Amino acid sequence: MVTALRSAWREVPHRQVHRFAALALDEVPALAEDILREIRHAYPQLPLIPDEFGEPRALVGIRQSLEHFVAHMTAGLDRPHVHPRVFQEFGRGEGIQGRSLDALQAMYRLGVKLAWRRLAEIGQEVAIPAPAMYELAESGFEYLDGLVAESVRGYAEAAARQAGERLRLQRRLMEQLFASTNGTGRAGPWARTVPGGAAGPAAARGSRSPLAERAARIGWPLPERVAVAVLLRPAREAVAPAVASDVLLDMECERPRMVVPEPDAPGRRELLARAAAGWSGAIGPAVPLLDAAKSLRWAGSAVDLMERGLLPAGELLQCTEHTEALVLLPPEELIEDLTRRRLAPLTRCGPTHGRRLAETLLAWLETRGGAPEVAARLGVHPQTVRYRLRQIRELWGAEVDDPDRRFELELVLRARRLRGELGQGPPPSA
Description:
The chain has helices spanning 14-42, 57-75, 86-96, 102-125, 130-179, 201-204, 210-217, 268-275, 292-307, 323-328, 332-342, 351-367, 371-378, 382-396, 403-418; strands spanning 225-232, 248-250, 257-261, 280-283, 287-288, 316-318. By secondary structure, it is mainly α. Strands 1, 2, 3, 4, 5 and 6 form a six-stranded mixed β-sheet that branches. The termini are far apart. Residues 182-200 and 425-430 have low confidence and may be disordered.
C-alpha cells in the first residue's frame, strides 16, 4: 500500500496561512513595482508596452502572477496552478519581434528570486515553519515553470502564424510571377513597363512595381534569372524539400512548385538535388524573371512525361538535358499525323521487319554514313544493312534524298524511339 507523502504546508494552521496571505497581498503592488524596476535595471532594452488603461503590461503581468500565486497557496499547494494569460502575450510578443525566449525566461527567474525573498521575510514574521516554507519554494518554482510554458505556447503560436503568413505571401508572389507572362511571352497585367512600353526585369525590380513590393514583404530580392521546378509527391504526408531560404516553395498545389533564383550559380544544382532527395520532378530552363511561366510550362510538360513513364522518375530532372523528349513527345497529335504520313511505306511490311527497317533508317539518317557505320551502330553485319537500305530506297524512293523529307523522317523515328517503339540497341538479326 502506497502511503501519501505528508505535506508540511497543510499542517500550518489556517489562521496562520491566511495571515501570511493577507500580508503578502498587501505587499503585491509595491513588490510588483520593485520587481519591474530591478528587471528594467538588468534589462534596459525591455520595452514597456501599455495596456488599454495605460498601465505597463509587464507590471500587470507581475502583479497578476503574484496575486495568483498567493491565491494558490491559500487554497492548497496540491491544487492545479492557474497562470495569467498575459504571459502568453509576452511569449507571443517575443516571437513577433523575432527574439528568443532566453531573456524573457531570465527576467522570470529574477522576478521569482525577488518575490521569494519578500515571501521568506513574511514567513518569518508570521512564524511559518521552515519545512512548510521549503514546500512553498518548490511550489513557486513549479509556478515559474508554468509561466514559462505559457510564454512558450504564445511564442509557438506567433511563430506558426508568422510562418503561415509568409507562406501565404510567398504563394501570392509566385502566382503573380507566373501571371506576369502566362507563358506566352506577352506581358501580363502585373508587369509594369519601362519607358517606351517594353516590360522587363528592370521594370519588375522598380520600387513601385507590384512584383517588387510583394517580394519585399517576404524579403526576397528579385533575381535576374529564375528556373521553376514542378514536383511529384512521393506520398501525401511526405516532408517538404529542405530548400534554401531564397527558393520559393509552394506545397499547397497538387504538384508542388519551386522558384529557384539564379539557377546557374555555382553549386546550386547540387544543393537542389540534395534538397529534393526522395522526390521526383523536373526543373525548367533558366529564364529571365518575367518569363518564369515559360520555365514552369516546360517543367510541367516534363512531369507529365514522367507520369506516363516516358522520362525517368525518382530524381529532379533538368529539362535542358531532355530537350529531345520535351520537343518531340508532347505534341502527340501533330507527331502522330506526321508519323502516319511519313512511315506509310512500312505498312507494306510485317511488324517485325518493319521495325528493323525503321531502326536501320534512323541509324542511317543519324550517322549519314555507309553500311559499315550503320552496321556498327546497330550491331549487325554490313551486308544486312545494304540489303535493308535497298529495301528502304524501294519503299521511299526519292523522298530519302530530299532534305526536308529526311528531317521529317528522322523526327518521327526519334519520337518512336523515345516512346520505346524502337530499340536502343541492336535489333534481332535479319
